[in-house]
Amino acid sequence: MAANTHTIVQALRDRFEADAILGARELPIPVPTAADRPTRAQSSAAPAEPPLPPRTPVSDEERESRRVALEVMDAREVMGCTRCGLHATRTKTVFGVGNPAARIMFIGEAPGHDEDVSGEPFVGRAGQLLTAMIEKGMGLKREDVYIANVIKCRPPNNRTPATDEIAACKDYLWRQIEMIRPEVIIALGAPAAQTLLGTREGIGRLRSRWHSFYPSGTSTIGEPIPVMPTFHPAYLLRDPTEKSKAWSDLKLVMARLNIPIPAR
Ligand code: URA
C-alpha cells in the first residue's frame, strides 16, 4: 500500500475504533478531510519510539511509603494552601488520585465544578470520558494510573488558570511526579502540556509526538520522563470527531509501555 493510502486507512481505522470505544455522537462517521491528510513532512515522520525497557516492579513497602508521602503533602500543605487567590473561592482542594507507583500519570488542567465539590480529579463529564479512555480504550483500571491536575483549586467559572496561579502551584505537581516516578506522562490539553514542557506551542502541534519532562525543572539534568500530549477530554466532548486522534495518541503510549490493545 502506498504510504499515503496506508495513513488514510490508519486514520479511518482509528476513527472507527475511537467511536466504538469512546462513543460516537454523529453518524455517518466522517472520512478524513484534506486537512487530516498527512503532509509530506508528516508522512515521513520519525519512526515510533521503541518500547521502554521493563522497570523493576515497585515493592508493596515502597508503594505504601509513596502513598503516605503523598497523603502527608496533601494534608499538611495542599489542603490549607493560600499561595494564590483561588483559595478564597474553592470548596475543596483537588490533590490527585490513583496508584502511587503508577506506570502512567495523566495530568489535566484544573478542577471543575464537580471536582471542586468532591475533592477528586476528573469525576464530571470530562472525567467520565477520561475513565472510558483508560478502561475501555487502554484496558486498564482507573485506579491503576495516577490522575492529577496542574493546579489544585478550581478557577472561577472554569476559566483557564492564570500564569501566576500555575507558578504558585507547580511545585506540588513537580513533587507528585517525583514521588510517583511514572514511566510515561500523558498531558491532557494545552495548559498541562505547556506547563510540563515549558513551551507556548499549541496542543495540535505538540500532540502525537514524544517529549521529555525533566524533573529538575528547566535544566536537562536527570532522567527525563517521556510525555505524550493529547487533547483534553472536555475538548473531545465538544468535538467528538477528534477522538480518533486522541485514541491514536493513547496507542503510541500503549506501544511504548508494551500494553496490548484489548481484544474487542
Ligand atoms: N478538567 C481538568 O482538567 N481536570 C479535572 O479534574 C476536571 C476537568
Q: Could you describe the 3D structure shown?
A:
The chain is an alpha/beta fold and 264 residues long. It has a single domain (59-256), classed as Uracil-DNA glycosylase-like domain (Uracil-DNA Glycosylase, subunit E), CATH 3.40.470.10. It is built from 10 helices and 6 strands. It has a 6-stranded mixed beta sheet with strand order 1-3-2-4-6-5, sandwiched between helices. Helix 1 (3-22) crosses helix 10 (243-256) and helix 3 (60-78) packs antiparallel against helix 6 (163-180). The longest helix is centred in the first third of the chain and has 20 residues, at 3-22. The model is unreliable at 26-31 and 38-44 (pLDDT under 50). Bound molecules: uracil. Uracil (URA) binds next to helix 5.
- Cofactors, ions, other ligands: uracil
Gyration radius from CA atoms, angstroms: 19 Å
Average pLDDT, rounded to a whole number, is: 90
Largest sheet: 6 strands, mixed
Task: Give me the CATH architecture, please.
Answer: 3-Layer(aba) Sandwich
Neighbour order of strands in the largest sheet: 1-3-2-4-6-5
Distance between the termini: 26 Å
How much strand content do the residues show?
5-15%
Q: Give helix and strand order, one letter per element, not per position.
A: HHHEEHHEHEHHEEHH
Total domain modules: 1
Beta strand count: 6
Class by SSE composition: alpha/beta
| Individual helix count | 10
